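New to this. Please check this fold:
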Amino acid sequence: MKKMSNVDIYAVCHELNDLLVGSRVDKAYQPTKDTIIIRFHVKGKGRVDVVFQAGVRMHTSQYPMENPKLPPNFPMMLRKYIKGGVVSQVKQHNFDRVVEIKVKKEEEYTLIVELFAKGNIILLNKDNNIILPLKRKLWSDRQISSREEYKFPPDRGINPLKLEKPQLREMFSKSDSDLIRTLARNGLGGIYAEEIIERSKLDKNITAAEISKSELDTLYETILNLFEPLINHDFKAHIVSGDKEDVLPLELEIYENTTKTYFDTYNEASDEFFSTKVRKEIKGVQEELWAGKVNKYAKRLRIQEETLEKFEKTIENSTIKGDLIYAHYALLEKLVNVILEARNKYSWAEIRKILKEGKKKGLQEAQVVESIDKMGAMVLNIEKEKVMIDPLKSIPENAEIYYEKAKKAKRKIKGVLIAIEKTKEKLDKVEKKKDLALENIMVPQKRVKKELKWFEKLRWFLSSDGNLVIGGRDAHTNEIVVKKHLENNDIYLHSDIHGAPSVVIKKNQEEISQETLQEAGEFAASFSSAWSKGFGSQDVYWVKPDQVSKTPQSGEFVAKGAFIIRGSRNYIRGAALMVAVGVVDYQGKRIMAGPVSAVKKYTDNYVILKPGYGKKEAVAKEILNKIDENRNFKLEDVIQVLPSGKCDIVTLKK
């Protein structure tokens, strides 16, 4: 996989500095051994994920990767020290492949991202001492381990943005390589070294030390012109595809005749380029793992089928040989008697010699003898079949040896057939698992931020009578529900428990029915703290809008998201805590969570939930698989509509 060059890192850092300064650090994850993802909350933009792959890349990402269920130590340490901290700076160190990210919390921390060689990610305290590195490393001049002072790697190469001609001349005078290698090894990399020589029209085979003054002047001007857009931050972020593949922040002449796709930022281009590679790698690794599992049973099946074939041949051949012995009974009996009689006078070696001579003379009994060993066992050629005879046994006994071999093979065939069936079942099972796993493989998919309708930013559902019912998600949105959306003819509901949303039934042309009131009551109960407490039901009250006030009387205090209710309350006793989740068509296709009777009105495909013990993400995955066969929604869309707390699936209607 391509590794980011010094030029790439310059572009990424400039864009990240503009984006992340002032943002808050949220969580950190470690999806693979050398990759860390840090989530930032950017004011006015929301969630921004930045992926750091040691030694390879760093950029914002819209392709969330699957995280391990048990977080490793390093991301947990990052959460401990810098979660909630504010980013004050993102910068490249001396135009090298090293990045510093400054985060201010109680004290200032620095996250170092090393993108050279195999790379590293290191957290430093305010004294520049290492708190914890992703990888512990030891060199003669640098030690990367906890509590050691962090030292930057020695400066390597040139900074083309601050390049002076004498510096270039000195670099060439010390080189024993050609121009391209000299430029590449001094921090510019192979691609930019090639581009410089291409633009300068110089002979790339010239030895650097032999370059003339005029050639040096040409080269110097070319370098300045090539990297001027970096100084002006005039990036042309694009991906090169076709015979050559690359992602670049600058236009290069060496890629003039290639297919190019342009992006608004270099971070976006890098995300698209690297995430595509990662997806292919993940899928390839998974396919290889499953191929190993499938091949294990396929190999076993092949061996078993070969064994079956071997037994079938044994039965066939042994039966034929036993039958041949009986078919030539008289001849063989005469032969055996002659040999046994001769054995009284001669050794087996002498008998073998006599048989050989008899064969030459045309003796009928001797013609069938192929060979005879030192123990007297004979191999006979009977009707072109090789048949072994023991002259010390009778003809029937010799035939029975073959018949018994056939019987034994028959008995073994039964076991082999059973084994083959079991292996076929296992192979079929693992192949189905493979197909399902590869189909549902957690390859990073692009996270596209959906434009939400105003009510989707709140809790909501559509009642059986078509009334829109909304509720707050937290104290802030409770305020919005009442202050912005509660109107004179609406109805306000609240669960009779601490920690519950403000719920409003929006009136349409018809009067608000008792059925809608009941559904809104179940909604208010289900999305209250009663759910996480595991209750089965909860009382809910409702009032008119003019009974809801934010103005306290003398001595009263009203917290954010709370309201004062004046006058009598109407109660819905024992509202059931049960929620159905399904895809409905309300101003477009969207996932709705609400009372079973309401969801049932708009879709036949829904899942019913009750308070329980299932983890929200696992339950959400199951729900998504059941209600979204066309894969129109993401896991986050389901999680967003579920009640707070654990839950269990009650039943599925389809």
In short: Residues 266-327 form the longest helix (62 residues).
